Amino acid sequence: MTGLPLSAYNWGDQDIQRDAQLRTSLAVSCMHKAGFAGFSGDNYQGTEPPDNATALPAGAWGYLGADIAGVQGFHPPKRSQVRTAPAGTDDSEAFVTARVDCDRQIAEQLKPPSPAGTELVNRLFSESLQATGRDSRVTEATRSWADCMARSGYRVADPTTPLQQYRGPGSPTAEELATARADADCTTRSNLAGVWFAVLTGYQKQQIDQNATALAAQQKAVKDQAERIARLLAGSGTS
């Protein structure tokens, strides 16, 4: 999804990670100044990010690969366990007040650009997804996928149905893994993912042409903010 045309007008994964790193560094510094020397990045973050968080199989765009389907089914990647709250955590009123004040200072220091640009990109992204879902090329590829699934013993018309059916708590069952392997095979045979991405890309390119001025301003604002955060991060000694 990050390779789609409209993705160029919002932050990438690296920008988001840098923003999180800077916010953690600023929070630790602020809390130390407030007298809480035991406060650390662990206090601020609390959890490890999931491994390969974007590797979510199935859906309208199909599978990332049969290997994932065979072991992961329709479940998302396993998340790392939440760490036990370190020794710098404090429930006192002074601690909570300091946290709130530090969060306020960080928000003021890292105030993002006007939300209008991001709202525009999000709206266009939503509209492009809706248009793609209605496109005859996508509906034909989806019918081909459904026919393939039926031949494999699975009567389902919507590629998102198995995802919704199986992505509950617990580990993947044998039934889920078998369905996932059939889904991965039929996605390849129907070229559903290829058609879906190609059509979606086409709609987004049209949107970019139609909103060129506003999107150019948004892209510059996003770039400027990312560069500012990178400078602040370098100055904080965190990388």
Quick check: average pLDDT? 85
Identify the quaternary structure here: single chain
Query: What integer value in Å does the Rg equal?
Result: 22 Å
Please provide the count of β strands: 0
Class inferred from helices and paired strands = mainly alpha
Report the end-to-end length measured between terminal Cα atoms: 26 Å
Order of helices and strands: HHHHHHHHHH
**Count of helix runs:** 10
How would you describe this structure to a colleague?
By secondary structure, the protein is mainly alpha-helical. Helices cover 64% and strands 0% of the residues. It contains 10 helices and no strands. The protein has helices at 13-33, 41-45, 66-72, 93-109, 115-134, 136-151, 161-166, 174-190, 192-210, 212-236. Helix 1 crosses helix 10. The longest helix is centred in the last third of the chain and has 25 residues, at 212-236. The protein is flat and about 65 Å long.
Question: Which features would summarize this protein structure in a list?
Answer:
239 residues; 10 helices; flat; mainly alpha
List the helices and strands and how they pair.
Layout: H1 13-33, H2 41-45, H3 66-72, H4 93-109, H5 115-134, H6 136-151, H7 161-166, H8 174-190, H9 192-210, H10 212-236
Helix pairs in contact: 1-4, 1-10, 3-8, 5-9, 5-10, 6-8, 6-9
How would you summarize this macromolecular structure in one to three sentences?
The chain is mainly α and 239 residues long. It has ten helices and no strands.
